[in-house]
Amino acid sequence: MAATILYGKEIAKDIREQLAGEVAELKQNGIVPGLTVVLVGDDPASHSYVRGKARGCEEVGIRSEIIYKDASITEKELLEIVYQLNENPNVHGILVQLPLPAHISEKAVIEAISSEKDVDGFHPVNVGNMMIGYDSLLPCTANGVVELIKRTGMTIEGKHAVVIGRSNIVGKPVSYLLQRENATVTMCHSRTVDLPSYTRQADILIVAAGKAHMIGKEDVKPGAVVIDVGVNRIESGKLVGDVRFDEVKEVASYLTPVPGGVGPMTITMLLKNTIEAARNLAR
Ligand SMILES: Nc1nc2c(c(=O)[nH]1)N[C@@H](CN(C=O)c1ccc(C(=O)N[C@@H](CCC(=O)O)C(=O)O)cc1)CN2
Ligand SMILES: [Mg+2]
Q: Residue 226: CB within 6 Å of ligand 1?
């Protein structure tokens, strides 16, 4: 069996067309959705992600602004910027790009963002609401993963989903979102004993471990849907996932590539959250 490759890039394009329509409708009602991204320091990958976010906004008609700050900014100065954005009625979404320099507490910054404008879905209020199944702004990568699975047309209800990785950005939220879809979820991580005994049971396998090429075809149940959230730069400079793509595509029913799988969905879900925040704040 050869897997169908889930090109997030193409799916993201479809969703963005739909989002552009929603933005046009909001604009007719006098609301121009606005996102402000704050970027501290000069990490090239962060700069590239932030540019991608601004490009995504432009594509669907969201007004966006990037505030660049030197890595020497103090925590107090950064918090002051966040407080001002919280008060600005033209800003519906606030995102502080992570990671931050070591002298700034990510926790303090995330908690300072108004939960209504927290388009990353990282604020404890949004995380709590997600956990108990209330409406909230959802973490973008996790939401993008679930959206990709839904687009295969498969039924998630009753399926056994195995998640590898327990990060706050991916592993934990994706496990909650899949439970919300009535999957039976098993969470595995770096200390799991006999990982393959779990992964081989998975109808849906989400790999977010951050370990290049760790999953091979011997770890995958034939016909499983495999979502690779890993982004690893290997010695050759090439970007690879946590899954051995060429092997696993022989046994999975669906498989995401890296790059071009989950990544493009992340930014699309951010655009979706910004539109949702604008709609909620206008109420
Ligand atoms: N405030 C936030 N900070 C960070 C987040 C986040 O969601 N919010 N996530 C990551 C970085 N990130 C977005 O910010 C991100 C990472 C990877 C991709 C992506 O598109 N990956 C591509 C490959 C990219 C490449 O070629 O280098 C892919 O998988 O296709 C998008 C966004 C940490 N910080
Ligand atoms: Mg092995």
A: no
Q: How far is the CA of 264 from the centre of ligand 1 (A)?
A: 8
Quick one: CATH architecture of 139-263? 3-Layer(aba) Sandwich (3.40)
* Distance from residue 1's CA to the centre of ligand 1 (Å): 31
Cβ of residue 263 lying under 6 Å from some atom of ligand 1: yes
Domains 31-114 and 139-263 share a fold: yes
Residue 125 Cβ inside 6 Å of ligand 1? The answer reads: no
At the topology level of CATH, where does 31-114 sit? Rossmann fold (3.40.50)
- Using a pLDDT cut of 90, give the percent of the chain over it: 99
Residue nearest to atom 26 of ligand 1 (CA): 259
DSSP codes, the chain: --PEE--HHHHHHHHHHHHHHHHHHHHHTT---EEEEEEES--HHHHHHHHHHHHHHHHHT-EEEEEEE-TT--HHHHHHHHHHHHH-TT--EEEE-SPPPTTS-HHHHHHHS-GGGBTTS-SHHHHHHHHTT---PPPHHHHHHHHHHHHTT---TT-EEEEE---TTTHHHHHHHHHHTT-EEEEE-TT-TTHHHHHTT-SEEEE-S--TT-B-GGGS-TT-EEEE---EE-TTS-EE-SB-HHHHTTT-SEE--SSSSSHHHHHHHHHHHHHHHHHHHH-
Ligand 1 pocket member 41 (CB < 6 A): no
118 is catalytic: no
pTM over 0.90: yes
How sure is the predictor about 178, in pLDDT bands with cuts at 50, 70 and 90? very high
User: Which listed ligand is nearest to 199 at the C-alpha?
Assistant: 2
In the chain, where the domains are located: 31-114, 139-263
120 is catalytic: yes
Q: Which ipTM value was assigned to this complex?
A: 0.92
